[in-house]
Structure formats: structure tokens, C-alpha cells
Design brief:
globular, 19 strands, six-stranded mixed sheet, 37% helix, single chain, three-stranded antiparallel sheet, alpha+beta
């Protein structure tokens, strides 16, 4: 067959021909991202083979209703292929019951009150360059299912209280650029609202829910990553009608956290689908690396994952993809994804796509060239052993933090078995030695947010049926943690410095699955292969 040129080598040869312009490389032993314009990329791309050009010509001819050029006779029967559009359209995808969510949450609040939940707003790129990708505010999405920006929801509490959806009124002149929006009746039918008003009709919306001056209105808090939760502001309506209401921010926030933490069967179906497609995308990234002999850039791995999930109908990722090769795998939230991998490197990929807002959160670590060397395999198998044991413990009425502490002790034992740590595993874990190599929690709740909410925060106290949690042990060689530990007498007595420095080239290994707690035990929603044998066999097959 034709010789396969590694992608990174292709970029390198294109630069030699003067077709690609690179920024000056930083002072680093690892190559960084080439800066290429779209036109340069187009020029650097090899022309399609003649067969592809002929196929393209046939398509164009059919589009113009012209005769198709004759094809060479073939004895092979034509393959019957279901068009991808028909295949995706016929897939029986799950749908969460947002009406049931509303009823459960609102019925837990005192009657005769109001509840106001704002949706998210669109963010522009640099003010005038169109909108950035919009992601709906999770509480609003949970209660309404509305995915577009600029909406609000107003509820009364009580059995006969209406659900009023407030929609943004689009200026008529924008219809040319953005398309005509749904009518009021179409919005009501599509989103299941009792009444729909526009955002210049707050007086009518408040009248619909029988709002009274001094009445309590429950409003949830909003929280950004790394920041404290802040109360969502009330609408700034032109007549100041919300000023007479008394906002309360605790009750609705806690009710939402309680109900969102326990997933319904439909929600678990959404997470199962997100896991299935995300798992396929991880495997596609392995195959891409195998075909290129492991000589790839990290951003290639990221792009293959995103392309495969979008091709299979999941258009959005749940969080920025981490694709760290070699030593970059030791950076827990590495997102630069701009380095070049060598065939012997392990690549840690933490990536998940979302379906109807419910995101998978999967991590796989694999050898870029397709085979684990002995040292990297030892670390990988140690992490896999800890994960397998931990998943079996994720059953109802188990204290999740106890599972986490047992995982730390198991990690310490495996490090002792590999000669990296000395002493007893219990003593090493108690002294914090295991946390030098696994400096994060075992996992967290998963759902409409990658770190989902619950009454106890993103890490539950006790596992109950309906919880979906991640299980993500790891072993990393982080210079910023190990360096100071070597100089700490209490830590240093546990550490075999020579062995650790030898293994540090591994970078890091993390394996992460998504586990649903059931009444009978647990279900691992993540079906992506993860044993050394499975990974190596898949990558070997891709090379042939």
C-alpha cells in the first residue's frame, strides 16, 4: 500500500517547501504549535487522489442533473450503505422530562410564593464578531429544557400555579440575519410552557402568577468555577416591578441541588449515550495516532475527538479537552494541547461530549505509537487496578470519601510494589505520600455540569441510587510536588528518589469512568476499552 507519512512530518516537509509559516519556537525541547493561516494550510494539504476527484465529479454531475460519467465495470456487488443522515435521524435518543423536574422542585417549596430562574445570555466575540458558543445555565436547562440564550422562567408555587416562559423579543430587522423566531404559540407548544410573554412584558408575566408586593420570590444562586456562589439578579424591568418582591436565595438553590443529584432513568440514558459516543471518539483518536506512527501533535488528538463526536450527533463538548503527551500528562488541567508527541510517549486525553446538556467525563491514557513499554505499562496497570477495585465499591449506602481513602491506600501499595515508595501503605497514605502522586479526589457527581451539584457539593457524602459519579484515579510525576517532598525529611523517608526520577518521564496516567449507582449495585456507563491488551490490539489493527 502507499506509504503513510506522519502528520507532524507532513507539516515539517511543507514548511521546508515554503508553504507553511511557523512562529519562532519557544525555548523548549518540545515542538510547539505551528502558526498557519487557512490559506497556508490549504496549500500545504496534498491534492486528493484521482479516484476522489472522480467521485467528486460524479456528485457534481448528479447535482446538475447531467449524465454521470461512465464507470469501469466491476464484478463486485455495490455496497448497501445507510446514509448518515437517515441513520442519525432514526436513532431513538432519550429525552429528559423537564415538566416532571419542574413539578418535583416546585412542589418542595412553600405554596403561595414565586420562583424566578434566569437563563444565560449570549456572549459576543470581541463585541462585533458574532456570538461565542452558548451553553445554557444548568438550573434553567433542568427546569425548562430551553437551550437558547436570553430566556427567563417565572413560576408560582402550588398545584395550579402556571409556568410562564419569558422570551427575548427579536428586532424585526434581525430576521434577515438570524432568521424569523418562533411565534408565541410555537414557543409555548415547543417548550411546554403554560404562557409565553416577551421580555418587554414583565407586567403581564407577574400578573399571570398573581404576584403581590412584598411576596417572596425564590431565586437560585449562580456559581462560576473557582468562585463563590452569587445570587442571580432579578430582572431589571423598566417599571421596577420586581423591586416590591422579597428575594430568597437558599430554598430553591438547595431544592435544585437535591433533585439534580438524583438522576432519573431518562437522565442516565442521556449520560449513557454521551458515554457511548465519547468512548468511540477516544478510540478514533488512538487510531489516528497509530496510523501516523505516534508522530502527532496534541491538537490533532483533540480535533479527532471533537470531529468524531460531532459526526455522531453530539455537537458540543462538556468541557475543554485535555490532551497531554509525555510530561504534559503530569499537568492535571493541561489545555494548551500544542506539543508534539513521540511514539514512546503516553498521551492522557480527558474529553467528553454532552447530549442534551448531560456530559460524559472520560479519561484514557494510551501509547502514542501503539505499544506500552514496560515502565509505562507498570504505571498504567497500577492505576487500572486501583480503578477496578474502587468501582466495585460504588454501591448504595457507601461513604464515597471512604472509597476515596481506600483508593489512596491502594495507590500507595502499588507504588511500593513498583519500588517508588518505601514502608507500609497505610502509613504512606496517612502521611500524604499517595497525594503526591494523586493530588486530586477520586471523583465527583456528573450530570448537567461536569462537576455536578448535590446537597453536599460536587462530592457526595453517601452514595444512593440515582447518583452518577466519576471514578478517576491516577499516578502523576509532578515536579512541583515531588521536589519539595524530597527536601522534607518526613516525606523523603518514604520516597525512593532514584526510582521516581527514572519513572518521571512517564508523565502521568489517569483512567476515568462514569458510574451510575443502582438499587442493586452499580452500572459502569463507560464502555470505552481500557486494558493494555485492548488498547494495543485496536491500535495495531489501525496500522493495517
Amino acid at each position: 500500500g502507499p506509504e503513510v507519512v506522519p502528520a507532524a512530518a507532513h507539516l515539517r516537509s511543507a514548511r521546508a517547501r515554503g508553504r507553511v509559516t511557523f512562529l519562532p519556537p519557544p525555548a523548549s525541547s518540545r515542538s510547539q504549535t505551528p502558526a498557519m493561516s487557512a490559506s497556508a494550510i490549504a496549500r500545504a494539504t496534498a491534492p486528493p487522489p484521482a479516484s476522489a476527484r472522480r467521485a467528486s465529479t460524479r456528485v457534481m454531475c448528479r447535482a446538475r442533473h447531467l449524465p454521470t460519467p461512465p464507470r469501469a465495470a466491476s464484478s463486485a456487488a455495490p455496497a448497501l450503505v445507510t446514509p448518515s443522515g437517515a441513520r442519525l435521524a432514526s436513532r431513538a435518543d432519550p429525552t429528559p422530562d423537564h415538566r416532571a423536574f419542574r413539578e418535583a422542585v416546585l412542589s418542595s417549596l412553600p405554596e403561595g410564593k414565586l420562583a424566578y430562574v434566569p437563563g444565560g445570555t449570549a456572549q459576543t466575540r470581541n463585541g462585533v464578531e458574532g456570538n461565542a458558543r452558548f451553553r445554557q445555565e444548568p438550573n434553567f436547562l433542568y427546569l425548562t429544557g430551553v437551550t437558547e440564550p436570553g430566556y427567563h422562567a417565572l413560576f408560582g408555587t402550588g398545584s395550579d400555579a402556571p409556568y410562564v416562559l419569558i422570551a427575548p423579543r427579536q428586532p424585526k430587522e434581525l430576521d434577515v440575519w438570524c432568521g424569523a423566531p418562533m411565534s408565541r404559540d410555537e414557543l409555548r407548544a415547543f417548550h411546554g410552557a403554560d404562557i409565553v410573554y416577551y421580555d418587554d412584558e414583565w407586567d403581564k408575566a407577574l400578573h399571570a402568577v398573581d404576584a403581590l408586593e412584598g411576596q417572596t420570590v425564590f431565586v437560585p444562586t449562580h456559581q462560576r468555577e473557582g468562585e463563590e456562589a452569587k445570587p442571580a439578579p432579578l430582572p431589571n424591568d423598566k417599571d421596577g416591578m420586581f423591586l416590591g418582591l422579597r428575594a430568597e436565595h437558599t430554598a430553591l438553590t438547595m431544592a435544585l441541588a437535591k433533585h439534580r443529584a438524583i438522576k432519573t432513568s431518562a437522565e442516565i440514558d442521556c449520560l449513557r449515550l454521551a458515554n457511548s459516543i465519547s468512548g468511540d471518539a477516544h478510540v478514533a483518536a488512538w487510531r489516528h495516532c497509530a496510523v501516523n506512527g505516534g508522530d502527532v501533535f496534541e491538537f490533532e488528538v483533540e480535533s479527532v475527538f471533537a470531529a468524531e463526536t460531532m459526526r455522531l450527533g453530539l455537537r458540543h463538548l462538556g468541557y475543554p479537552t485535555i490532551a497531554g503527551a509525555g510530561r504534559n500528562a503530569a499537568t492535571l488541567h493541561y489545555e494548551r494541547n500544542d506539543a508534539r508527541a513521540a511514539a514512546e510517549d503516553l498521551i492522557l486525553v480527558d474529553a467528553g461530549a454532552e447530549y442534551r446538556g448531560y456530559t460524559a467525563d472520560i479519561t484514557r491514557t494510551f501509547p502514542s505509537g501503539g505499544r506500552f513499554c514496560a515502565m509505562r505499562r507498570d504505571i498504567y496497570d497500577a492505576v487500572l487496578d486501583v480503578q477496578n477495585a474502587s468501582i466495585k465499591e460504588m454501591i448504595p449506602n457507601t461513604h464515597y470519601r471512604l472509597v476515596q481513602e481506600l483508593a489512596k491506600t491502594r495507590t500507595a501499595q502499588r507504588l511500593i510494589d513498583l519500588g517508588l515508595v518505601r514502608g507500609r501503605a497505610e502509613d504512606a497514605a496517612f502521611a500524604g505520600v499517595a497525594s503526591l502522586f494523586m493530588p486530586h479526589a477520586l471523583g465527583h457527581l456528573l450530570g448537567l455540569q461536569v462537576h455536578d451539584v448535590g446537597p453536599d457539593g460536587p462530592v457526595p457524602e453517601t452514595l444512593v441510587p440515582g447518583h452518577v459519579v466519576t471514578c478517576e484515579p491516577g499516578i502523576y510525576f509532578v515536579d512541583g510536588l515531588l521536589g519539595p517532598a524530597f527536601e522534607d525529611p518526613k516525606m523523603a523517608e518514604f520516597l525512593n528518589r532514584d526510582a521516581i526520577e527514572k519513572f518521571s518521564r512517564v508523565g502521568g496516567v489517569r483512567i476515568e469512568d462514569n458510574v451510575a449507582v443502582t438499587s442493586e449495585g452499580f452500572e459502569n456507563l463507560t464502555t470505552c476499552p481500557k486494558t493494555v491488551r485492548e488498547i494495543e490490539e485496536i491500535m495495531a489493527e489501525a496500522k493495517h
